[in-house]
């Protein structure tokens, strides 16, 4: 009799343990999902407050729209969308801000810091810096005439950064089409996503040092008139003019439209990595977007949502930083 009872209680305990394990698995699976209503109960005014900080910044300087979209991209491609790009150098951190692709180039950190300090006033310790980057990218797109989308939320912030991953995972302006396809593919993004996302070069600017080789290359995939215009403020010799800016889209530099793709078809892409999208072989997608602005915009929104989904920290992983540039 006693033996039977022991057996029963053992099997009861085993079933109980199995149920607990199952529940844990289910809950971690649920936590792994980002959700657009994540802050609905914990900070109902989060999105409105962030939007207002972002709008103030763009009203002050319109280019900031471009810089903030790029910041979210440069965050997501390094360790996932975890705000690692915002961390400053510290004893245990070598900041991604100093990687070649970011140094003296990525900008908008102070705008995110301001949005975060506004958030800390209304809901301390609730909204992550990684989510603020994702929300800002959507808000600025909408502001400059690009598409809007529902941002999925619930990302948490990293306690680490990686300058070496930043150097290897952020694309170079000299990259070939094959290497770009591989890189975006490794992040779960298709060629179509990559071409659509590159369409954010319809706004913003690039420094002479990034396109000098292209405009002095005598390459066959560059328009002669475009070359002479761009050479005016970007002389051949390396030096003081390295930082001179040129619009990535020479026709409508301040509005989010499909002119970038029209430019590529006319061999007027500013960066080598822009022009290879057309001359290197993604010709069909480029020409489709050049003819059809609404397809471009809806594909761009879809691709931004996919990009925002790259390896987020969720559940109990990571932290909510109180100041975006440092670990609590
Ligand atoms: C396909 C590979 C890409 C390469 C090689 C590349 C490279 C660059 C370079 C070199 C600049 C100019 C930086 C400077 O001169 O300081 C730039 C600017 C920019 N990039 Fe990209 N990019 C790529 C894809 C993307 C993607 C996927 C996005 C967004 C989703 C993006 C958004 C931007 C924006 C908005 C700017 C203008 C930033 C500003 O004016 O502050 N880029 N990019």
UniProtKB/TrEMBL annotation:
* Sites annotated Transition state stabilizer: 70
Cofactor info, note text: Binds 1 heme b (iron(II)-protoporphyrin IX) group per subunit. Binds 2 calcium ions per subunit.
Q: Which PANTHER family match?
A: PEROXIDASE 5, PEROXIDASE 72-RELATED
Cystine crosslinks? 43-123, 76-81, 129-324, 208-234
* BP GO terms, sorted: hydrogen peroxide catabolic process; response to oxidative stress
Cite the binding residues for heme b.
201
Needed co-factor(s): heme b; Ca(2+)
Please state the span of the N-terminal signal peptide per the UniProt entry: 1-32
Please list the residues that bind substrate. 171
A GO CC annotation recorded here is: extracellular region
Name of this protein:
Peroxidase
Originating species: Durio zibethinus (Durian)
The entry's family comment says:
Belongs to the peroxidase family. Classical plant (class III) peroxidase subfamily. Belongs to the peroxidase family. Ascorbate peroxidase subfamily.
Gene name of the encoded protein: LOC111287764
Q: Where is the Plant heme peroxidase family profile domain?
A: 33-328
Write out the entry's keywords from A to Z: Calcium, Disulfide bond, Glycoprotein, Heme, Hydrogen peroxide, Iron, Metal-binding, Oxidoreductase, Peroxidase, Secreted, Signal
Name the Enzyme Commission number(s) assigned to this protein: 1.11.1.7
């Amino acid at each position: 009799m006693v033996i039977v009872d022991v057996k029963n209680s053992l099997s009861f305990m085993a079933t109980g343990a199995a149920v607990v394990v199952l529940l844990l698995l289910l809950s971690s699976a649920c936590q792994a999902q980002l959700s657009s209503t994540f802050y609905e109960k914990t900070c109902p005014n989060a999105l409105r407050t962030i939007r207002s900080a972002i709008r103030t910044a763009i009203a002050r300087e319109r280019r900031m729209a471009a810089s903030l979209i790029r910041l979210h991209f440069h965050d997501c491609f390094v360790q996932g969308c975890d705000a690692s790009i915002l961390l400053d150098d510290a004893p245990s951190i070598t900041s991604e801000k100093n990687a070649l692709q970011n140094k003296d180039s990525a900008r908008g950190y102070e705008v995110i810091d301001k949005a975060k300090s506004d958030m800390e006033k209304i809901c301390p310790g609730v909204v992550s810096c990684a989510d603020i980057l994702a929300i800002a990218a959507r808000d600025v797109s909408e502001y400059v005439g690009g598409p809007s989308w529902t941002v999925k939320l619930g990302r948490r912030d990293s306690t680490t950064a990686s300058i070496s991953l930043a150097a290897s995972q952020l694309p170079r302006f000299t990259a070939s089409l094959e290497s770009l396809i591989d890189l975006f593919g490794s992040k779960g993004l298709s060629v179509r996503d990559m071409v659509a996302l590159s369409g954010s070069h319809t706004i913003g600017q690039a420094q002479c040092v990034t396109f000098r080789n292209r405009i002095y290359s005598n390459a066959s995939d560059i328009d002669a008139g475009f070359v002479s215009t761009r050479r005016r403020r970007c002389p051949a010799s390396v030096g003081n003019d390295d930082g001179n800016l040129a619009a990535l889209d020479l026709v409508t530099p301040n509005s989010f439209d499909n002119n970038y793709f029209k430019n590529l078809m006319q061999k007027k892409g500013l960066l080598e990595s822009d022009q290879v999208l057309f001359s290197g072989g993604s010709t069909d997608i480029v020409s489709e977007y050049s003819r059809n602005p609404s397809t471009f915009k809806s594909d761009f929104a879809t691709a931004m949502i996919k990009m925002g989904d790259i390896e987020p920290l969720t559940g109990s992983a990571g932290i909510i930083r109180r100041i975006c540039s440092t670990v609590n």
